[in-house]
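Give me structure tokens for this 581-residue protein.
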Amino acid sequence: MKSLRRLIVFMAPYRVWALVAPALMALEVAMDLAQPRLLQTIVDVGIAGRNAPLVLHVLAVMVGVAVVGAVGGIGCTIYATRAAQAFGADVRGGLFRQVQRLSFGDLARFETGRLVTRLTNDVEQVQEAAAMLLRILVRAPLLVVGSLIMAVITSPRLSLLIFALSPLLIATFVIVTGRAQQLFAVVQDRLDRVNITMLENLAGVRVIKAFVRSAHEIGGFGRANDEYMRETVRAAVVVATVMPIMMLLVNLGTVGVLWFGGLLVQSGHVHVGQILAFVNYLMQMLASLMMVGMLLMRVARADASAERILEVLDAEPGVRDAADTAPLPTLAGRVQFDQVRFSYDGDGGEPVLRDVSFAVEPGETVAIIGATGAGKSTLVHLIPRLYDVTGGRVLVDGRDVRELRQDDLRRVTATVLQETVLFTGTIRDNIRYACPEATDAQVETAARLAQAHDFISGFPEGYDTLVGQRGVNLSGGQKQRLAIARALICEPAILIMDDCTSAVDATTEVGIVEALEGWSGACTRFVITHRVGSVLGADRILVLDGGAIAADGTHAELLETSPIYREIIASQLGTEEGAHV
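Here you go.
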């Protein structure tokens, strides 16, 4: 329960409910413990003495005790459920907030499917365990101890049977619980694989159908699903062994009490009412021990889930704000890379960028080209601190970006990523996602700059057209233009366009470039593209090769000085002579 105990901090705001629930459960337990003694009184005094008024009186008391116990039990359930549900919601909220703090590298390490499992199934396991603990953690131990005390008071001789059974019960709990915790950790890992496979298939369903790979993917999901089923069955079998063993011990105990008690009744050492009361206490105690067993199984599974939750909560984000960050002043947009090195695996990993140095003045447009894997996207992602440099510095207006708050930096640095992501809602809502307070006029201006206004106006609902999940009802080019409009609406000081026009036709791309050149909201622009048309109008062109800058200059300069650049241009225009044309 080490991991589960660490999550108890999320229960602190609901401590009143968490205390009231056990108190009400204690009331129910007290009433349950009183019932066998009242039954003994009816049998040994009322019935044996043929005292009908006493029997009726005690029966009335038993009804009253039962009602009070029921009120306590219902109240405990209500408050325990409230506390557990609120606790689970806060754990889930804390997990989600932590996920938002994680860097791109952290998210890649945890994987989406595994995070989904932690936010759903793992939190549910912990939440259910909390609810059971608030109800059974008080009821079961109190009933065990109370029943044992009352059984000893009722018949010390018969109580010897209880002490004989206890070691067997304890040994069963210890062995099964330890094994179950290991198996449940494996079960959650297999559930991760099911979620990962499912998410990949849902995201890539069009590709699957296009290449007729449904049967292959069904087989892959089936294997992951079967592994999850097998591990779940293994864990369930271990847990299921507890109940038969417990029932065997309960029945042995009952038979022993009736046999040994019968002998004592014959010898006159005990009365029949005592036997009935003792059997009730024995059943209560053993039933409570069975509840303890169930609780331990639930806690074992919840502890495995809690460990997985804490793995995320304890993760230190790869990109963190410094303790002495100051408010970000108005930016001019000057960007400088000073001997920048970067590796996804830290200092000891294979470098993606090697000693990159260059400076970009405010308002300049810089095109970045190079072969696939040259480090183009990684380079621009260092500016808004989507990743932090491994070595060297990235400076904005002369200040190291690691000295700036991430939120402040990203508010003035708009990034259009390669993968276009839209959210369920209207087109208008998606465009002003980065600037919720933007007016309708600003939304339209951004859409016109991104060459999106015309196709938006063609929809019957215009800007109020609903965007399906992940923009499923839009073409790739339309989604990219909406993403560009979303970046432009906040009028950033630095605009990063990471190969975000790959699905846009050449004419539309030229329109976007020309619109940005005439845009009044001048900003420093970094453009990653594979098209010649977007390169020619740039103030500077950086050619990346193997993570280093191979050439830096204008189009005309690079044609004269850079063989790599000429090769890239010629590959699109057909011949090297065509590149000069």
